[in-house]
Amino acid sequence: MITGMLGLGNNLNELKMRILQIQDELSQLGSPELVMPEMINMTNTLRLNEYLTKSDEKKTALNAAYADYTRQLEQIISSLLSIQVDLKDIIKAEASIIGAHDSGKAEKKTRAKPKK
Q: Is the distance from CB of 69 to CB of 12 less than 8 angstroms?
């Protein structure tokens, strides 16, 4: 299980890098170009449409990367919760063993010593 967790951590780092790269690409797009009065409205509309298309593609990729990242985090949390349950069971088992061992010692101490 721990080796699987290590794989999830590596994948999580890759996803984080992908998210950062997409965010950087999105910020490099900047804002839409200003309307140029010397151009006709249709040309300005086409330019805006090109920008919005690129922006939408990047945002879609970013959403997909966040979804993958979220799935990986959920898997890690699920694994951690499973480990936590296993550890609680181990602690309970060890506590009962220690308790049984200690109660055995207590019985030996309370027995009456035989008379000579």
A: yes
